C-alpha cells in the first residue's frame, strides 16, 4: 500500500476529528480511510488512534507520528508544486554541445531568443566539432548534424540542411570544373575529418545509386569554417552544409558545382540521454528549437 496515502489518511483523521469527515475532505470512502489507517498501524506495529463511539483521537505515539507526517506531506506537496511550476515556467541550467559553425551562426541566435523568453534559465554552450560523450561529459543535450550513430540516445529532429560542392572561381579556371562524380577524383578535395563515413564522400548519382569518392586530398580539417576558408583560397573543392557557405556563395567567393546531382540532405538533431522523463527545462529548450528552426529555415537556398 502507498505509504503517502496511508500517511495522508491518518493526518486527515487527526485534523478532521474522525473518519467520516476525513473521507469527505479527501474525497474517498470512509472504508478506504479506515483501510489506509489500519494498514499504517499494522505496518508500524503500533496503535496510532484511540477510537471510541463518540470520537477519535491520536495516541501519544500517534501525535509524534503526526508531527513528522505533516512535514513529510508538506515536502511532497512542495515537490509536486515545484515540478508543476517548472513545467509552466522552466527554470534551471542546461549544458549544450554543438558544432562550431552551427553554434556561431543560427544556434547562438536561437539560444539568445530562448533565454529572453525564459529568464530563469541559464545555458552553458560548448562549441566543438568533435564527437562528445553526452552523459560522461555532463551534457544535457548535443546538437548533431548528419547520420546518428548512437542508438542508445534519444533524438528529435530540429531541421535539416543540404550539402553542396563548392570551389573558388580561380581554382576552377586553373583546374577545370568537374562535370560528374568520376571527375572529382582528379581534383584536390578538402575533407571534413569528423564525417562518420571516414575518408570517403558518399554521393548519390543521378541514377539514385550511392557512390563513394575517397576524399584524401591536400587538406583535412575538423571544422567546416576552416574548410570554407581553404576553398575560398583556391586550395580545392569542399563539400559543406549550405548554412556555412551561404554568405560566401552570395559574395561570389565560392561557386557551387555539380548542381545536377540529387541533393544530399543532413538532419540536424537534438540528442539527449534516454529515460522515462525529460527534465522540463530540457523539454522546453528542444521544443523552442523545433519552432525556431521551423520559422528560420537554415537548410538550403530559399
Describe this structure in words.
With 302 residues, this protein is an alpha/beta fold. The protein has helices at 3-16, 19-26, 30-44, 60-88, 100-117, 169-175, 181-184, 224-232, 242-251, 280-295, and strands spanning 49-51, 56-58, 92-98, 121-127, 141-145, 154-167, 189-192, 200-204, 210-214, 219-221, 237-241, 255-257, 264-272. It has three domains: 3-85, Winged helix-like DNA-binding domain superfamily/Winged helix DNA-binding domain (Arc Repressor Mutant, subunit A); 92-158 and 271-295, Periplasmic binding protein-like II (D-Maltodextrin-Binding Protein, domain 2, 3-Layer(aba) Sandwich), CATH 3.40.190; 161-265, D-Maltodextrin-Binding Protein, domain 2 (3-Layer(aba) Sandwich), CATH 3.40.190. Strands 3, 4, 5, 6, 7, 10, 11, 12 and 13 form a nine-stranded mixed β-sheet that branches. Strands 1-2 form a two-stranded antiparallel sheet. The longest helix has 29 residues, at 60-88. The model has no long low-confidence stretch (mean pLDDT 88).
Amino acid at each position: 500500500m502507498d505509504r503517502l496515502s496511508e500517511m495522508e489518511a491518518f493526518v486527515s483523521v487527526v485534523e478532521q476529528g474522525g473518519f467520516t469527515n476525513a473521507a469527505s475532505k479527501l474525497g474517498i470512502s470512509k472504508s478506504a480511510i479506515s483501510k489506509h489507517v489500519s494498514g499504517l498501524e499494522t505496518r508500524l506495529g503500533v496503535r496510532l488512534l484511540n477510537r471510541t463511539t463518540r470520537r477519535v483521537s491520536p495516541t501519544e505515539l500517534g501525535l509524534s507520528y503526526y508531527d513528522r507526517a505533516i512535514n513529510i506531506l508538506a515536502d511532497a506537496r512542495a515537490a509536486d508544486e515545484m515540478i508543476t511550476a517548472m513545467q509552466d515556467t522552466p527554470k534551471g541550467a542546461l549544458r549544450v554541445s554543438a558544432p562550431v559553425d552551427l553554434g556561431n551562426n543560427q544556434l547562438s541566435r536561437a539560444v539568445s531568443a530562448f533565454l529572453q523568453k525564459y529568464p530563469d534559465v541559464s545555458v552553458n554552450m560548448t562549441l566543438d566539432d568533435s564527437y562528445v560523450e553526452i552523459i560522461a561529459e555532463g551534457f544535457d543535450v548535443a546538437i548533431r548534424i548528419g547520420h546518428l550513430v548512437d542508438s542508445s540516445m534519444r533524438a528529435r529532429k530540429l531541421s535539416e540542411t543540404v550539402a553542396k560542392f563548392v570551389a573558388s572561381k580561380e581554382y576552377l579556371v586553373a583546374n577545370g570544373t568537374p562535370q560528374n562524380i568520376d571527375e572529382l577524383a582528379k581534383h584536390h578535395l578538402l575533407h571534413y575529418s569528423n564525417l562518420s563515413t571516414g575518408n570517403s564522400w558518399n554521393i548519390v548519382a543521378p541514377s539514385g545509386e550511392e557512390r563513394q569518392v575517397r576524399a584524401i586530398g591536400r587538406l583535412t580539417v575538423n571544422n567546416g569554417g576552416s574548410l570554407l576558408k581553404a576553398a575560398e583560397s583556391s586550395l580545392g573543392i569542399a563539400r559543406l552544409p549550405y548554412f556555412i557557405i551561404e554568405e560566401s556563395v552570395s559574395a561570389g567567393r565560392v561557386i557551387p558545382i555539380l548542381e545536377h546531382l540529387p541533393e544530399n540532405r543532413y538532419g540536424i538533431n537534438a540528442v539527449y540521454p534516454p529515460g522515462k522523463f525529460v527534465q522540463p527545462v530540457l523539454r522546453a529548450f528542444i521544443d523552442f528549437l523545433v519552432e525556431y528552426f521551423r520559422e528560420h529555415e537554415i537548410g538550403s537556398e530559399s
